[in-house]
Amino acid sequence: MAAVTQFEIDVRSKRYPAVGQAPPIEALRDLRFAISVGEFACIVGPSGCGKTTLLNIVAGLDADFTGRVDFPGPAERSRPVIGYVFQKPRLLPWRTVEENIRLVLSPAQARSTIVDDLLAATGLIDARHSYPERLSVGMARRVALVRAFAIEPDLLLMDEPFVSLDETTAERLRALLLDIWSRRPTTVLFVTHDTREAAQLADRVIVLTPSPGSLQSIVTIDTPRADRINGGIAEAIRQRIVQPPAIEASR
Amino acid sequence: MPDRWGFLPRAASFVAFIAAWQIGSLAVGARQLPPPLVVLDVLWRRILDGSIPYHVGVTLARVAVSFTIAMLIGTAIGIAMGRSRRLDRFFDGWLILFLNVPAVVSTILCYVWFGLVETAAIAAVAVNKIPNVVVTLREGARALSPDYIEMAQVYRLSRAKTLRHVILPELYPFIVAAARSGLALVWKIVLVVELLGRSNGVGFQIYSAFQNFEVAEILAYTIAFVAVIQAIEFAILRPLERRAGRWRR
Cβ–Cβ of B148/A61 closer than 8 Å? Predict the structure, then answer.
């Protein structure tokens, strides 16, 4: 078997069994795509189209599906190091900011300066000994971001990490994310329902259909991120995501 | 005086209790119910001659050992049953049975099976307490948030780390609740166990006093022991509970 060179996701079907009176639900169907190493890929789609389900499958949290997920690299190193920024920060409330981050590190990372570097880059140095419940929502999300980057992941999964923040804070966090990512490059799979957010962040956008989620289109964005600050250019990119050309839509 | 609304009613309540005791003693006779001062005198003499410190100490040691064993075993079983539906279904009937076995029955059975030895006494107390710990911790383990466990899974925390940093802290309120109700239960059962098959400890002393009809002796030991248990509650368990909540807003 040839070594896989990219992240290959092939979900034939993912069903949730019937619960009580509710019928069984097919969350994903025939969803196939690949992500190159180092790529920033956004997954967009209407709410309820199975985006979080997809991330949980890739993360290995959900093995109850038909299909497969292949990671790049030699076969014996079957699972890459995965960082996951959940929709809620999921910081342990009984551990301080720094304890939350250090808990997930390897011994080598714990000895390095990576925690200090990332805390400094995200403006969290003063909050390192605080308990998460004393943090603002934006700060807690920054901690979750630091935790995910601190393990130096091969793959970074992000599930609407900036949802329900005010636009200014979300904007700042997006800039912060791109800043850290450019200094510590990794492959990112970023789920969002916000097409503007995808247009701003992604190298490639994977658009899902409504439930059961399957591939609607893949939009490649070549425009340098610095140019996307221009409102007109950003809107043009967003239009390509929202209304993909017919050729990209057919598969 | 900022705390007068807390202090005055308590003081009044204490005085009323002593008065009721005195009146009751006058009504039924000092032999049936010795008045407070007589009991206080016995208490003081038994402390000075060393018998209360010795027997309370022996009983406390039994409480400590059996309490620790019951907490450890009960917590382990409780977590296992709370996390696994299969285990829970299988052992639920057993649990209900053990919850309802009277303390006297399990104590006598332990003495019959193991002999009148210390191990039997400790085992009898632990067996009585374990089911209560299991029920409390099972409740806690069922309520564990999958959010943190998934986080631990993705970030590949070892089982030991997951237990220490994720599961046990989340269960801490349940552990403290089990410990507090456990202490209240264990010290009462220890007395029964001592009464039935030991030749020292508060339970044994109360049994001896009962045979000689020394009510003042019984009351003196009761007061001494209740005071010690309350001191443990205030000095150890309450601070532990506060400590558990220090991360809360």
Answer: no
Domains, chain A, with CATH or none: 1-16+36-80+154-251 (3.40.50.300), 91-152 (no CATH)
What are A114-148's pLDDT values in tens digits? 999 999 999 999 999 999 999 999 999 999 999 99
Quick check: B243 pLDDT over 90?
no
- B2: confidence class by pLDDT, cuts 50, 70, 90: low
Q: Calculate mean pLDDT across residues B204-219.
A: 92
Domain ranges of chain B: 35-244
- Judged by CB atoms closer than 8 Å, whether chains meet at A103 and B165 is answered as yes
DSSP B158-225: -HHHIIIIIIHHHHHHHHHHHHHHHHHHHHHHHHHHHHHH-SSSHHHHHHHHHHTT-HHHHHHHHHHH
Q: What confidence score (pLDDT) does residue A48 get? A: 81
d(CA B54, CA A183): 69
CA atoms in the 13 A half-sphere facing the CB of B64:
9
Residues of B in contact with A56 (CB under 8 A): 150
- DSSP label at B116? S
User: Which residues lie closer than 8 Å to B143 by C-beta, 6 or more apart?
Assistant: none
Q: In the beta sheet, which residues pair with residue A128?
A: none
CA distance to partner chain A, nearest, from residue B80 (Å): 21
| B171 in contact with chain A, both atoms CB, cutoff 8 A | no
With pLDDT > 90 as the criterion, what percentage of chain B qualifies? 76
**Which pLDDT score is estimated for B10?**
85
pLDDT at B27 over 60: yes
Token pair 């990209």: residue: A248
Average pLDDT on B192-197 reads 91
B147 min Cα distance to partner chain A (Å): 7
Mutate to test the interface with B, among A94, A106, A135 (most CBs of B within 10 A): A94
> What pLDDT was estimated at residue B238?
83
Q: Which of B147, B165, B172 is opposite residue A88, by nearest beta carbon?
A: B147
CB A14 within 8 A of CB A28: yes
Residue B217 carries which side chain, given as an amino acid letter? Answer: E
Residue B144 gets which letter from DSSP? -
CB A50, CB A14: distance < 8 Å = yes
- Can you name the CATH fold of B35-244? MetI-like fold (1.10.3720)
How close B246 comes to chain A (CA, Å)?
8
Q: Which residue of A78, A86, A92 to mutate against B (max B Cβ within 10 Å)?
A: A92
